[in-house]
Amino acid sequence: MGTPRTYLPVLQATPVATLDGAIDGPPPTSLVDNFARRIRYLRISVTDRCNYRCSYCAPDDIAGDLAFAGRAEILSFEEIERLATVFARLGVRKLRLTGGEPTVRKGLVDLVGRLVRVPGIEQVVMTTNGHLLADLAGPLKAAGLAGVNISLDTLDPARFTTLTGGGDLVRVQAGLRAAVAAGLRVKTNAVALRGVNEAELLALCEYAWAHGAEPRFIEHMPMSGGMIYERAAELSSAAIRTALAEALGALVPVAGDRDAGPARTWMLAADPTRRVGVISAMTDHFCGDCNRLRLTAAGDLHACLGHDDALSLRDALRRGDSDERISHAIAAVVVGKREGHEFLAAAPGKHMISIGG
After folding, report:
1. How far is CA 97 from the centre of its chain?
2. Does residue 130 belong to any structural domain of this protein?
3. Among positive and negative, which fits the CA dihedral 223, 234, 212, 273?
4. pTM score, two decimals?
């Protein structure tokens, strides 16, 4: 992006663990960590592949460091459905499908249909770059998908192609329109980058509102060991809100939904129907309200985006562990969930493309 990069220390890598030894006691019925946070939201990466190479996620300069999982290493739909069933018994109510790019996984519509039928699951949503959404929006809605978050970092076609490593803005805009027309709840996601798209904050909001979507802005995070993090490009939540307030008038905070994601929502004082979300991982931490776990496409369960330690649920499935034993494994991960991330001091080694944000 043209600005000097500031590398952070990399957190000490922790290998993916497996659950060994005997487990005693009845299976857990809920997931509550040592900080009284109740887990009700699971993000499931259905693939680590993507048809884009966004500069803040998987640009060319980390390509040599990426190791995509082989087909046999990826969770099957049957395995994902079984794990979703176990998580639902433990109190998880919301599933978000991510990637990589979830729409490149064949059979995605079928997977959505399976997951919405899992007893206890109240909502299945998806995050996508929108490139293939024009054809998939209708079938996904019919399968039971409730909403989509569509990455839309800029409205400038040339800048969009540069930021996404060859993406097509026209196709994404068509996907957004198709999603709204299908009746999906649509939000737009923009990673806010100083010197890149900061002049478009207002335009991105007005575009989303005009098309029946809710805009959201995300602070730049130091994934990939800090290799793709540029501190000079960081645009804080406060700076985003100030810029919007100067153009649109006062912003009023909206009471949060603890079962929702990390975005904090604001509405225009002059028009409460116009809302904007900000995910402020760097400058206004939301760790105290975290209700999420992340499952990679290869079946590794992560308690925190900002740490690399994980537990392989795929290994547990494939060696024949019972649902009860897997429940204990999940509960152990939740008990070990840290109070917060360490983004300002060190960067996790894992790549955003592999964990789905």
Report:
1. 8
2. yes
3. positive
4. 0.90
Distance between CA atoms of 56 and 1, rounded to whole angstroms?
10
Please give the Cα distance from 83 to 93 (Å, whole number).
Answer: 13
3-state secondary structure 178-195: HHHHHCCEEEEEEEEECC
* 16 within domain boundaries: no
Residue 213 belongs to some domain of the structure: no
Helices marked H in 19-143: 77-89, 108-116, 133-143
Tokens 């992560």 found at? 302
Rounded mean pLDDT for each run of 10 residues along the chain, 357 residues in total: 40 49 75 93 95 79 66 95 98 96 97 98 98 98 98 97 95 98 98 93 98 94 64 85 97 76 90 94 74 94 83 96 96 86 61 69
Q: Output the six-digit token pair for 282.
A: 């760097």
Nearest CA-CA partner of 168 in 129, 206, 201, 216: 129
Q: What is the CA radius of gyration of the chain?
A: 20
CATH number of the domain enclosing 344? 3.20.20.70
Rounded CA separation 193/16 (Å): 32
Residue where the block lists tokens 């007893």? 119
The answer to whether residues 129 and 101 touch, using CB atoms and an 8 Å cutoff, is: yes
* Adjacency order of strands within the sheet including 300-302: 251-253, 264-268, 271-279, 214-219, 185-192, 147-151, 123-128, 94-98, 41-45, 292-295, 300-302, 311-312
The domain in which residue 306 lies consists of 41-184+287-355
